[in-house]
Specification:
The structure is a homodimer of 235-residue chains.
Chain A: H1 2-11, H2 18-31, E1 40-41, H3 43-50, H4 54-66, E2 70-73, E3 77-80, H5 85-109, H6 113-127, H7 135-152, H8 156-175, H9 183-198, H10 202-213, H11 215-226
Antiparallel strand pairs in A: 1-3, 2-3
The structure holds a DNA duplex (30 and 30 nucleotides).
Chain lengths: 235, 235
DNA sequence: GAAAAACAACTACCATACTAGTTAGTTCAG
DNA sequence: CTGAACTAACTAGTATGGTAGTTGTTTTTC
């Protein structure tokens, strides 16, 4: 496991500070299940692993705690937060609220032709991940799609909040690979979203985004059954 | 100015750690304009002011930076973020998206009688702030109203995100005292929201919440004119 | 008098040490 | 053999020192 951590550490060498680099590595590790839900961490252990002092580790833990990914218990330890069904539902609720508002705003006000073109380009690239299935790449393109849509509609804060909230959802995504939802279905949903926005059809854009955002809930019960230790006991 | 900071510091004596206490004091000071937009801060200066070490100060700065309230420039200084019209619009956009979804959810699924009663009780207490005007108290009751609505509807994450996002809006609120919007008008809007939710009228609840959330935008242009130094130059 | 160079004083970031709280393991008494 | 007491080893929180970057001031040169 430390090999994966160190591999990510090397990947993130371009970060501006040790704290930023650590934060990115630990965040990615938690989302991708390299660090498992419930796993105990400590400032000293992580500092020794990456040969840095405890302070940037501690500062990363603070940010991860803010992001709801770890729980720091004073004098006891730091624990990777288990995935909570309630937290997943809540994160989906908040993300859906924001992304639906973004889609409606984009349909109402229109998007630049260049943004529309970029969205279609991302969809073409997603299609190339569907066969053979390349989930890691699809995941990145999916994220780029939603980011481009939010920023293209002028909603930078919306994307920033969505990015934070979706960490809980991303953990479930990584747990559910191969996707319960076939990639072609997700790609169709993306296409529908862009089409309805390009047409200026506000209601259809809303419906398309809602349907898309609720897809993740379909796989949740099966995942809880397959990985009971990963999930918080409370519903 | 340091007197106000130290007064807040004394008020927050019950916090669990120095960092939590500092974070709360600094956050409240920024929101209430005790620390002005654009003002330079430093780890050492704040540490000396409160007679603590730099590390908890530094850790509070990190959280404030995450919350978009300060900007940390390595080796140069830490600055209270100026209010940005764009940031205010964006924060309002995100908050409206979330709170409208909460209101609809509450209207669809219904709220406990106890929650409805608590909301009406808060409205009664708000009325007592309207004449004579007690803006500080109204502000707290307004916040309690929205928090009770979100938590009562079961949307804890929604409230957590809203609370973070609304910091930018709260700064504008404090700048605009006395309220551009008369308190009775805001109270009427709160009443309308609860009535439509209690009736289970989803569409009316949505409209009522949208109207309420857009109220803050009415005062923005006048505030920019009155306090040009508080606002970021970029639109 | 103006411009360039040198210097001092500030900053945030990182490293290390100390302290108090918590838990697990060991020892001792009954 | 069991339970209580003690101890060691861990933890996070806080304090302090060192370093590199940045900026403002002072000095020197032309």
């Amino acid at each position: 496991m430390n090999n994966e951590l160190l591999a990510l550490w090397d990947d993130c060498a371009s970060e501006s500070s040790v704290r930023q680099r650590l934060y990115r590595v630990l965040r990615q590790s938690i989302i991708r299940m390299v660090l498992s839900p419930g796993q105990a961490l400590s400032e000293k252990e992580i500092a020794d692993t990456f040969d840095v002092s405890r302070q940037p580790v501690r500062e990363s833990f603070i940010r991860l705690s803010e992001a709801g990914l770890v729980e720091v218990r004073p004098q006891r330890g730091t624990y990777v937060v288990k995935v909570s069904q309630a937290a997943v539902h809540e994160a989906r609720f908040v993300r859906e609220a924001i992304e639906v508002a973004v889609a409606k705003s984009a349909a109402e006000q229109g998007l630049d032709e260049a943004v529309i073109a970029e969205l279609y380009d991302l969809i073409e690239r997603q299609k190339r991940c569907a066969s053979p299935s390349d989930y890691d790449r699809f995941f990145l393109l999916d994220e780029a799609f939603h980011r481009t849509l939010s920023l293209g509609a002028g909603h930078h804060s919306a994307w920033r909040v969505t990015e934070e909230v979706k960490a809980q959802l991303d953990r479930v995504r990584y747990l559910s690979v191969p996707e319960t939802t076939p990639l072609p279905k997700l790609i169709d949903q993306h296409t529908r979203i862009v089409e309805t926005i390009a047409e200026g059809n506000v209601e259809a854009a809303e419906v398309a985004m809602r349907v898309h955002q609720r897809e993740i809930l379909h796989s949740l019960p099966e995942l809880v059954a397959r990985f009971p230790d990963m999930f918080d006991a409370k519903s």
